[in-house]
């Protein structure tokens, strides 16, 4: 017969395999001279997320069944691009509540361009429509901030707008003549512009966390990284 301890170990919670794989990969990348510091921080965040999802016992300790080896048996991802690809791929297998963290980490590592989906789904097109409308409003707000003395750069926004328009084709909405800009009384033009850009970045990142198509998710991550 199994001892009571063995029964607890057998039936206890298990760490999420996708999060464990990502955490171990990030830990293995911590020695990289180019982005090791960032990957070390990401590994700490991921191991903490593994424990959070697993839960803690009454004494505040992680259950014995949730203890994991921090070493990656597969070795490091070898590049930031490979790490982004791994995050994009395993996001589908990770817990829903963990995906915003994975999207944020992917954005931190991403650079360059990513292709748009060749055959976008209805969900993808709906997200693209919402993002395009948001970018129209963002560029309008940045123009207002610039008129009040802020130094702004709308090139990345303009490029993303063009890509979204191409994805949506003839269904792409046109920009409105004006948008409402909620300018806090205590914000300077520069602060207002910075808040607009951060809000835009947050929208693309949030969309990546909920995207169902991995190619679209990859594009959203690289889009957020440009802003």
Features:
2 domains; mainly alpha; Ferritin; 9 helices; 227 residues
Protein model, in words:
It is a single chain. The protein has nine helices and no strands. It is mostly helical and 227 residues long. The chain folds into two domains: 13-109, no CATH class; 122-226, Ferritin, CATH 1.20.1260. Helix 2 runs antiparallel to helix 4, helix 5 (99-109) crosses helix 8 and helix 8 (189-210) packs antiparallel against helix 9 (214-226). The longest helix has 26 residues, at 122-147. The protein starts with a helix and ends with a helix.
Q: What best-fitting shape do the alpha-carbon axes yield?
A: elongated
Percent of residues in helices comes to 55-70%
Q: What's the structural domain tally?
A: 2
Radius of gyration: 21 Å
Total number of helices: 9
Under the CATH scheme, which architecture of the largest domain would be assigned? Up-down Bundle
The CATH homologous superfamily of the largest domain corresponds to Ferritin, core subunit, four-helix bundle
Number of beta strands:
0
Mean pLDDT: 89
Per the CATH scheme, the topology name of the largest domain is Ferritin
Alpha-beta content class? mainly alpha
Per CATH, the class of the largest domain reads Mainly Alpha
Listing every helix as H and every strand as E from the N terminus to the C terminus, the arrangement reads: HHHHHHHHH
The CA-CA distance between the termini, in Å, is 60 Å
Protein name: DUF4439 domain-containing protein
Organism: Corynebacterium stationis
């Amino acid at each position: 017969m199994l001892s009571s301890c063995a029964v607890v170990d057998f039936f206890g919670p298990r760490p999420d395999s996708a999060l464990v794989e990502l955490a171990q990969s990030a830990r293995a990348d911590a020695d990289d001279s180019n982005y090791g510091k960032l990957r070390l921080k990401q590994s700490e965040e991921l191991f903490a997320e593994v424990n959070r999802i697993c839960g803690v016992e009454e004494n505040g300790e992680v259950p014995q069944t949730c203890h994991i080896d921090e070493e990656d048996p597969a070795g490091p991802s070898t590049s930031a691009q490979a790490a982004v690809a791994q995050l994009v791929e395993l996001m589908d297998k990770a817990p829903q509540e963990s995906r915003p963290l994975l999207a944020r980490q992917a954005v931190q590592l991403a650079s360059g361009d990513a292709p748009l989906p060749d055959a976008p789904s209805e969900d993808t097109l709906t997200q693209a429509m919402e993002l395009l409308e948001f970018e129209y409003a963002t560029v309008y707000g940045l123009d207002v901030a610039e008129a009040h003395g802020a130094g702004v750069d709308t090139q990345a926004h303009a490029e993303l707008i063009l890509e979204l328009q191409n994805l949506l084709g003839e269904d792409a909405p046109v920009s409105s003549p004006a948008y409402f800009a909620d300018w806090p009384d205590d914000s300077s033009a520069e602060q207002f512009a910075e808040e607009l850009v951060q809000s835009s970045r947050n929208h693309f990142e949030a969309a990546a966390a909920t995207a169902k198509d991995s190619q679209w998710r990859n594009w959203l991550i690289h889009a957020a990284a440009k802003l």
